[in-house]
Automatic annotation (TrEMBL):
The lineage of its organism: Bacteria, Pseudomonadati, Myxococcota, Myxococcia, Myxococcales. Coiled coil: none annotated. InterPro entries: Dimeric_a/b-barrel, DUF1330. Residues 35-111 form the DUF1330 domain. Pfam families: DUF1330. Signal peptide: none annotated. SUPFAM superfamilies: Dimeric alpha+beta barrel. This is DUF1330 domain-containing protein. Gene3D superfamilies: 3.30.70.100. It comes from the Bacteria.
Length: 124
């Protein structure tokens, strides 16, 4: 299962940059006992987010899936806003940040990390 973006993923992410802020949707499925490691990762990530002007907008536990196929329920959802795709790329390229990413990798069984763009007329 996919956990971490590869170099080719980041390259495509930057090539498809429409400009402006980006809101990243994080859908997370934890390994047994992985939640604690992920919580440690989120605390350790905070200074890196602040450094690039990013912000954790929402973090919550998955609950009742009203519309989902079997296996599509997620343990947690995070929404993180960055001022630009370049800011996100700058953060993940930081050698100090890279030293803590093992916490995320070790915590997750599966993840979706998807850049979103605002609908026309809804840019914020």
């Amino acid at each position: 299962m996919a956990i971490d973006p590869r170099g080719s993923d980041l390259k495509r992410y930057m090539q498809e940059d429409p400009g402006g802020p980006v809101v990243m949707l994080n859908l997370l499925r934890f390994k047994e006992g992985g939640r604690k490691s992920y919580e440690e990762y989120t605390r350790a990530t905070q200074p890196f987010l602040e450094k690039v002007g990013g912000e954790l907008v929402y973090a919550g536990n998955g609950s009742t899936a009203l519309v989902a196929e079997p296996g599509q329920a997620w343990d947690a959802v995070l929404i993180v806003r960055y001022p630009s795709r370049a800011a996100f790329s700058q953060m993940v390229a930081d050698p100090d940040y890279q030293r803590i990413t093992h916490l995320r990798t070790e915590a997750l069984q599966e993840a979706v990390l998807q850049a979103t763009t605002p609908w026309p007329g809804r840019r914020k």
